[in-house]
Every structure is written in structure tokens, then in C-alpha cells.
Automatic annotation (TrEMBL):
SUPFAM superfamilies referenced in this protein's UniProt entry, alphabetically: FabD/lysophospholipase-like (SSF52151)
Domain of life: Eukaryota
Gene Ontology MF terms in the entry: transferase activity
InterPro entries: Ac_transferase_dom_sf, Acyl_Trfase/lysoPLipase, Mitochondrial_malonyltrans
Protein name: Malonyl-CoA:ACP transacylase (MAT) domain-containing protein
Length: 142
């Protein structure tokens, strides 16, 4: 945290365009999560994973999950692998000429996925909608 605070305080010195601390509860998708890989693998081995009925894409290789073994492996690798948002967007929205794009909804605070979609595929982004849900609204229902 000290190193991040230092970088934030000295952002102009290092010519950072923007510095923002992300409100996350762990160092997910980094090598700092390596110690969690084995416990997660054991937990996943204790449950039955079925082939998805809908398209689900892996953050590890940006491909569709198909086989339960592949899902288990990719979920464990996902702990320490960077998220491949742009690659997933290209995979999801790849279309033959004339084929319509699917409607895409981003539910929750922010519009980051929409921004990524716009930068990857402007035509597909025309079918994007954001449904804003704040933390306060979520907490009221629980």
C-alpha cells in the first residue's frame, strides 16, 4: 500500500495521466494469489461442474468454457492471470458479415465494459446498455 500511495502522490513526477486506487479485497489476477491456487483446486475437485448451457468465456485464454476439466483448470489459473477483457470482447463479437450483434447489458456501478467494447468494436457497442445499480440499492435488498 505504501508503494501505491507513493506513486499516487508523485503521479505528476512520473507523468501518470491518472491514478486511481481500486476498491478490491485482494490482489486477484496477480502472482500474489499463488498460495490460493491449491485450496481453490481442491474445493473445485469436491464439486460437480457441468458443461455450461450458455456461452461462458475464460479470462485466462478468452475462449469458451466447454469441458468441466477445462473449467476447473481455468478457474484456478484465473486467480493469477490477468483478465483478457479485450480478447474476450473480440471473441464474443466476432461476426460474419450481415450477422447481428447480441444485445449486451452491463449491470452494476460504472461503465468500464462498455468503454472496452466501444474501443474494440464500435458496431457491437451500439447494442450495449448500462443498468446502473449502486451499492446502496444492493444492500437495501439483503
Amino acid at each position: 500500500i505504501q508503494a501505491l500511495e507513493f506513486l499516487q502522490k508523485n503521479s505528476k513526477k512520473f507523468s501518470f495521466a491518472r491514478v486511481k486506487m481500486l476498491p478490491v479485497s485482494g490482489a486477484f489476477h496477480t502472482r500474489l494469489m499463488k498460495s490460493a491456487m491449491q485450496p481453490l483446486s481442491e474445493a473445485l475437485e469436491s464439486i460437480s461442474i457441468q458443461e455450461p448451457l450458455i456461452s461462458v468465456y475464460s479470462n485466462v485464454d478468452s475462449k469458451k468454457y466447454r469441458q468441466p476439466e477445462q473449467i476447473q483448470h481455468c478457474l484456478v489459473e484465473q486467480l493469477v492471470s490477468p483478465v483478457k477483457w479485450e480478447q474476450i470482447m473480440h471473441t464474443i463479437y466476432e461476426r460474419n458479415k450481415g450477422k447481428k450483434f447480441p444485445y449486451t447489458y452491463e449491470v452494476g456501478p460504472g461503465k468500464q465494459l462498455g468503454a472496452i467494447l466501444r474501443s474494440c468494436n464500435l458496431k457491437a457497442s451500439r447494442y450495449y446498455s448500462n443498468i446502473e445499480v449502486s451499492e446502496d440499492e444492493t444492500n437495501e435488498e439483503t
